[in-house]
Every structure is written in structure tokens, then in C-alpha cells.
Design goal:
single chain; alpha/beta; Rossmann fold; ProC C-terminal domain-like fold; 2 domains; 12 helices; elongated; binds NADP nicotinamide-adenine-dinucleotide phosphate
Length: 267
């Protein structure tokens, strides 16, 4: 895996097509439509009806097509954004051109199956955008990106090139640990409020403190979480005490165990 790639802000012209206009497609579309990309055309599938109509009304560059095939016919880069259970069948129904690039957001559709399904098109990659691409803030792991895809995703997040499917899947597994992360913040929020701090103050402090800690980690070179943890743990200080207690309780190991079980889903 290579480290994060620089963000590109150069305007580019592109014809993008989305098969499946649900949550993640909408976030990507919001992101690209607000990124200042010149000569951008976005073609969306008719489903979901309300969402595709909403996007077409909101952005002049978005056109709701009458079928998935019409999306493919108009676009140069096709994003597959349907749910895993139907994804392969939906893709196999479509006729691609040799010069199409296909980008799948579907977690359980392997690259080999995707390439097989899109013939005669040959250029395919898998990517993991999250809803925060709508506001141009999101790491985006991409398996085998082309320069154009890296450049495009650079407009809506921080592309991270991955060359091995197993590595991609390991990173994908981490996206299943968002709820436990927010649950931890919720626990701390409840505790703080119970001690008499107004909810708005407690929540603003918690959200901003953890963002600041992530920012410090993000800026470190190399990023070394163990070292950041040690650095915060002043001898006999609060962090040393709580760090030891929680580590020894085995709570952190539960994250690794949950990740192991999530990884099974990709097999
Ligand atoms: N949400 C995320 O944060 C996220 C992140 C990374 C990857 N993904 C992956 O991206 C994919 C989409 O996720 P999502 O959260 O956007 O799901 P979603 O909101 O349920 O969107 C899926 C969309 O696919 C449409 N659809 C179903 N069958 C279709 C067909 N035959 N042709 C065209 N469209 C069809 C659905 O339309 P109807 O509403 O009319 O059924 C719906 O709009 C999934 O594979 C998911 O695992 C999601």
C-alpha cells in the first residue's frame, strides 16, 4: 500500500454515471457537484426515484436517465452503488464499452468478478467512499486506481492507493467500527452530563477534543499510535491511570475481535 496521495484541485472535465442513486452515490454526487470541477456531467439511474429527482433538480449538471443502460451509454466513468446482494446481477445486465472505467463501491463484489461482469471494458477499480465525501472530507482507499480516478477522488477526499485486494478488505472492515466509535463518545457524553455539564458543552468538547487528537495523529510522520499513547501518559498522571485500567480490562481487544468477525463477511 502506498501512503496518501496529494490532493489535486486542477479542474477536469468528466462524464460520470451512477448505477444506484442511494446514500453513498448521493454523497459522492454532492461532493463532485460542489468541487468546482469544470465541464462536469453526472448521469444518475432512475432508482431511487426521489433521490435521483432531488439531485437532478438541485444540480444543473445532474441528469436523471430513464434506465441504467442509458447511464452507461452517456458516461465515461461508471460508479456501481447498489447493495451487495443485487450488485453483480445489476452489472451483468449492462452493456459496457471497451473504453469505460468502472468503479465499484460494493464491499463484497471482488475485482475479478467485477472485471468479468463488465467485459469488454477492462479498467475497473474498487473504492471506499464514506458519506463525508459530500463535504470533501474523507480518506478514500482505492484498489488499482487510474490517474483520472485518483484525481477525481482528490476533489472529494484524500485518495489512498491500495494495490492488494486483501488490504482493501481490511480497510473496509474498519468502516464497520464507526458505530462503536460513536458509542464510546455517547458513553462519555452521558457521563459528563451526569456530572452536571450542559449537554451542548459536553458534546462540543467531546467532538472537538477527539477531532483534535485525530488531527495530531494525522499530522505525525510517521503516524505512530503507540507513541502518541505513551506521550500522553505522564507518569502517575490521569492518562497513565485510565490507559492502564482500560487496557487491562481487555476492552480494546474487543475491537480487534469484532474486526476479525467482520472480516469473515468478505470471504
Ligand atoms: N453508505 C455508505 O456509507 C457506503 C460506503 C461505502 C460503500 N457502500 C456500498 O455502496 C452500495 C450502496 O450503498 P448505499 O448506502 O448507498 O445503499 P442505498 O442507500 O440502499 O442505495 C442503493 C440504491 O440502489 C438502488 N437500486 C436497487 N436496485 C437497483 C437497480 N437494479 N438499478 C439501479 N439502482 C438500484 C436503490 O433504489 P431503491 O431505493 O429504488 O431500491 C437505492 O437507491 C452498497 O453496496 C454499500 O455497501 C456504502
Amino acid at each position: 500500500m502506498q501512503p496518501a496521495i496529494g490532493i489535486h484541485h486542477k479542474p477536469l472535465s468528466m462524464k460520470l454515471g451512477f448505477i444506484g442513486t442511494g446514500s453513498i452515490a448521493s454523497a459522492v454526487i454532492e461532493g463532485v457537484c460542489t468541487a468546482g470541477i469544470e465541464e462536469l456531467s453526472v448521469y444518475v439511474s432512475p432508482r431511487n426515484e426521489a433521490q435521483s429527482k432531488y439531485l437532478a433538480d438541485k444540480y444543473a449538471c445532474v441528469t436523471r436517465m430513464e434506465s441504467n443502460q442509458a447511464v452507461v451509454d452517456q458516461a465515461d466513468i461508471i460508479f456501481i452503488a447498489v447493495r451487495p446482494l443485487v450488485a453483480e446481477a445489476v452489472v451483468r445486465e449492462l452493456q459496457f464499452r471497451r473504453d469505460h472505467t468502472v468503479v465499484s463501491f460494493v464491499p463484497f463484489l471482488k475485482l475479478a468478478a467485477l472485471i468479468d461482469a463488465i467485459a469488454p471494458a477492462q479498467v475497473a477499480c474498487r473504492a471506499i467512499p464514506l458519506p463525508s465525501v459530500a463535504v470533501h472530507q474523507c480518506p478514500i482507499p482505492i484498489l488499482r486506481p487510474t490517474p483520472a480516478i485518483t484525481q477525481l477522488f482528490g476533489h472529494i477526499g484524500q485518495p489512498l492507493e491500495v494495490h492488494d485486494e486483501q488490504q482493501l478488505v481490511a480497510l473496509w472492515t474498519l468502516t464497520g467500527l464507526i458505530t462503536p466509535f460513536y458509542d464510546m463518545l455517547f458513553t462519555l457524553s452521558n457521563w459528563t452530563i451526569a456530572k452536571g455539564v450542559p449537554g451542548s458543552t459536553a458534546n462540543a468538547y467531546i467532538a472537538n477534543m477527539y477531532q483534535a487528537l485525530s488531527y495530531m495523529a494525522q499530522q505525525a510522520s510517521p503516524i505512530d499510535f503507540r507513541e502518541l499513547s505513551r506521550h500522553a501518559a505522564t507518569p502517575k498522571g490521569m492518562n497513565e491511570q485510565a490507559g492502564k485500567e482500560i487496557r487491562e480490562s481487555g476492552a480494546h481487544q474487543e475491537y480487534a475481535k469484532a474486526a476479525d468477525r467482520l472480516l469473515e463477511r468478505f470471504k
